[in-house]
Design a protein that fits this description.
The protein is an all-alpha fold. The chain is built from 8 helices and no strands.
Length: 200
């Protein structure tokens, strides 16, 4: 969670910095420190690549789910949905490793160059001490647990307020589209699950 956010900001800044004039070459000592930082951040770099590759698949799946009822005969919908799911899994199996390998390869010239430019050698030494610290490593590994703990508590404390708003939104959108709601009493099936933030 936190590592991904940190790396997303650094990568975004790195890509913006590539458009600027190149800075003077960094010393070998700086390059070594940056390489150590990038090695520690490799999982975050790979996660960003995975997210970028997964995003179009997620959008395509959503569009396919919307189109399926009107484009495919009812008796074929389940089979076609499974075929689409298999296509998406094949795409991810092919594309994710390629994107991750490329992200790791270009990290020194993008993120690394930004770190070399924006941080002094002394600051990079401090960063290395942080990212190589066993305590920091333990903290990073707790990212999913911390996100789940927050999400569970947030859902528990806001469910009564948020779920009615989700149902009202679904009813409003369904009414505008002329789509009947599932069940006479309220929200379409799945509203409660959509109101719950996904724990990563």
């Amino acid at each position: 969670m936190l590592k991904k956010s940190l790396m997303a900001m650094v990568l975004g800044a790195a890509f913006a910095a590539q458009a600027q004039a190149p800075a003077s070459p960094a010393s070998p000592a700086k390059k070594d420190l940056v390489a150590r930082i990038l090695k520690q951040q490799q999982a975050g770099i790979e996660n960003i690549a995975r997210s970028l590759v997964e995003q179009p698949a997620i959008e395509l799946m959503g569009n396919a789910a919307s189109a399926l009822p009107s484009r495919v005969a009812k008796d074929r919908q389940e089979a076609v949905a499974k075929e689409i799911q298999a296509d998406v899994q094949k795409y991810l199996a092919d594309a994710v490793p390629l994107a991750q390998a490329r992200a790791v390869k270009i990290a020194p010239a993008s993120v690394g160059a930004l770190l070399e430019e924006k941080f002094s050698e002394e600051e990079l030494k401090q960063l290395v001490a942080i990212v190589e610290s066993p305590v920091y490593t333990r903290f990073q590994r707790m990212g999913d647990d911390m996100q789940k703990a927050l999400a569970d508590k947030l859902v528990a404390e806001t469910r009564g307020t948020i779920e009615p708003k989700v149902r009202a939104l679904e009813q409003s959108v369904a009414k505008r589209l002329g789509v009947p709601l599932n069940g006479a009493a309220g929200a379409p099936q799945g509203a409660a699950s959509r109101a719950r933030p996904a724990a990563r």
